[in-house]
Amino acid sequence: MGKEKKSAPKKPAAEAKLPLSDGNPRQSREKASRFAVLGMLSLGKKSGYDIKKQIETSTSNFWSESYGNIYPMLKKLLAEGAIREEKSTPTAGGRQKQLYSITANGLHALQEWLRQPALPGPEDNELLLKLFFSAIVKPQDSRALLKSFRNQVAGELARYGGIEDYILSLQATKAQKTYWLATLHYGQAVSRALLQWSEATDKAIKELDE
C-alpha cells in the first residue's frame, strides 16, 4: 500500500478588517460620526436614545449627532461586526430597549482612529463674513455686532465653568476626567482668545470715527 498523503495544515482565517479606518487622515464627516457612536459605546452599553442623550450632555459643545445619523449608523456598525445588540431587562410594563455594546473589532477600530491625525474644524464664520463687507455700513453698526458677539462668548465662558464643576464631581477614572477636561479647556482657551480679538477689533473700528 502506498503512503497516505498528509494534507497540509490549514492556515487560520484572517480576521476581517472592518471598513472603519483606511489610514487616511482626511476622514469624512460620516466616518467621524461612526467613531462618535463607537466612542459612546466604549463607555458602556446603550440604546440609540441613550447615545443621543449622552452626546447632548458631554460632547455637544464640539460634536453633535442627530437621531437621523445615530440609528442608521448603528445598523451599519452591526453589519460590520463593530457592535452587538441585545434586549434590555423587561420593565414592569414588559417593555424592552434595544441595547448595543462595542465588540473587540469595534474597539480596535476606534483605537486605530484615535491615533490618526484629526481634520481641522469647519471654517465658515458668519461674523467674519459680515466684517469683511462692513466698510459699507457705519462703524457703530460693526461695533454693535462685536458687542453682541462678546456677550455670547462671555456667556459661553460662564457656562464652561459650571461644566468643569460637573466633570470634577463625576464618578469617573482619572484618565477619563483628564481627557474630558482637556476638551473643556480647549473651549475656554478659544473663548478667551475670541474675547481678546473682539476687544482689539472694536478698538481699531472705533478709531475709524476719530
UniProtKB/TrEMBL annotation:
Transcription regulator PadR C-terminal domain segment(s): 125-204
PANTHER family named among the record's database cross-references: NEGATIVE TRANSCRIPTION REGULATOR PADR (PTHR43252:SF6), TRANSCRIPTIONAL REGULATOR YQJI (PTHR43252)
Protein name: DNA-binding PadR family transcriptional regulator
UniProt keyword DNA-binding present: yes
UniProt xrefs under Pfam families: PadR (PF03551), Vir_act_alpha_C (PF10400)
Region (Disordered): 1-31
Keyword terms, alphabetized: DNA-binding
Molecular function GO terms recorded: DNA binding
Organism the protein comes from: Silvibacterium bohemicum
Domain Transcription regulator PadR N-terminal, residue spans: 37-112
Family annotation (InterPro entries): Tscrpt_reg_PadR_C (IPR018309), Tscrpt_reg_PadR_N (IPR005149), WH-like_DNA-bd_sf (IPR036388), WH_DNA-bd_sf (IPR036390)
Taxonomic superkingdom: Bacteria
Matching Gene3D superfamilies: 6.10.140.190, Winged helix-like DNA-binding domain superfamily/Winged helix DNA-binding domain
